[in-house]
Amino acid sequence: MPEPMPARELLPEETQVYMDGLLRPHAVEADRIEAMLPSPMVQNHAANLCFLPGGALACVWFGGTMEGMSDISVYISRLEPGADRWSAAEKLTDAVDRSEQNPVLFVAPDGLVWLIHTSQPGGRQDLCEIRYRQSLDGGRSFGASQRLGDFTGVFVRQPVQIGPKGEWLLPGFRCVTPDAGKWTGGLDTAVMLVSRDAGGTWQAVEVPDSLGAVHMNPVPGQGGVMPAFYRHRFAEAVQRSLSRDGGLTWEAPEPTDQPNNNSSVQAVRLTDGRIAMVLNPVNASMSDQRRASLYDELEGEDEGGTGTAIWGVPRGPLSLVFSSDNGATFPERRELETGDGYCLTNNSKDGLNREYSYPSILQGPDGRLHIAYTYHRRAIKYVCLSKS
């Protein structure tokens, strides 16, 4: 096993050195190994993990110059069974005039692997569409890009779930533009996209009273109740809603005991019945750092229209929390990163951004936890924990 990375926040130039995909032991925690995934791009963000047919662990994310720009594309890297290094990044999308973001992988019941992602012109999330590509060889290669449904302004972030009668459930959220001005996030609401014909057609089912609740993340139910967790545009608390019919309809989201900074969370049901969730335990009341909007650095972008979404609350530290009551409370906590999480800029090229964000988490067949997340918007960091 190679020498571990330093047990501290890496400097920008060090991050570049360690982006070789090599698995390294943690300098202090004996049950932890980690790696920086290889990427040719200066900005890397929004990871999602998936076990492929054959056992390889795949990670997809988007990379380019800066979120929202037209050179943002989807990439994939794989960790083969028994390997000690993640593979070189492969570009999966290449629309020259659109920003392609928030990829997820889904292994369908018939073994077909789907890549699903958003595609938008510049910073206009309200004009995005959902695209997909399919793989017939277990995620090694993908066919032509196609549009998923006829939705405009619906974003995705979390993986597909299977419903009680085999329905495909793709969580999404509507990016709603105010009457005057540009999209800012303050009017966004949650929606579940449901397919009853294996992805051929999709129906949008609204989540009631979900203003500001986005990145809907359902996990398998317990005792007939299926919980979903949400990022909160108003940077108060992680939201939770419940479904009593296997994910087809949902109750209104309500706040949990975990703070949220208007950044993504992801949760998974463990084999012992607990829920494990990765998040930034920070909200707006804990920081006065603010920025105008997500895309305020793009050329020609102003402060946008009306809306009360809160941007700029630090995206750090990064924590792993556990619940034994179906997500009602999360009393157990483990720290993954402890830096300041500065995110008043998306600039990773000059080492200005220091966020830890957009986590993905899976439990492997052997019980280990696999976690991937944005490291300073410069790299995707992978962590494997042998104890959960």
What does this structure look like?
This protein is an all-beta fold and 388 residues long. The chain has a single domain, classed as Neuraminidase (6 Propeller), CATH 2.120.10. Strands 1-2-26-25-24 form a 5-stranded antiparallel beta sheet. Strands 11, 12, 13, 14 and 15 form a 5-stranded antiparallel beta sheet that branches. Strands 3-4-5-6 form a 4-stranded antiparallel beta sheet, with no helix packed on it. A hairpin with an 8-residue loop joins strand 8 and strand 9. The model has no long low-confidence stretch (mean pLDDT 95). It comes from Neogemmobacter tilapiae.
What labels would you give this structure?
about 400 residues, Neuraminidase, 5-stranded antiparallel beta sheet, 1 helix
Shape estimate:
globular
Proportion of strand residues: 35-45%
**What is the oligomeric state here?**
single chain
The class by helix and strand makeup works out as mainly beta
Question: Architecture, according to CATH?
Answer: 6 Propeller
Whole-angstrom Rg? 19 Å
Largest sheet, spatial ordering of strands: 1-2-26-25-24
Low-confidence stretches: none
State the share of residues found in helices, binned by percent. under 10%
Order of helices and strands: HEEEEEEEEEEEEEEEEEEEEEEEEEE
State the end-to-end distance: 22 Å
Sheet of most strands: 5 strands, antiparallel
| Count of DSSP H/I helices | 1
- The name CATH uses for the topology is Neuraminidase
- The CATH class name reads Mainly Beta
Average pLDDT across residues? Answer: 95
State the total count of DSSP E strands: 26
Total number of distinct structural domains:
1
GO molecular function: hydrolase activity
InterPro entries: Sialidase, Sialidase_sf
Domain Sialidase: 55-371
Keywords: Hydrolase
